[in-house]
Amino acid sequence: MSKMIFDNKLHVGNRLMDREHAILIEYINTLQDLVDGDSSRHLVGQVLEGLIQYTKTHFYVEEELMHAFRYPDYVKHIQA
Question: Cα separations (Å) of 78 from 25, 30, 59, 66?
Answer without folding.
Answer: 20, 27, 9, 10
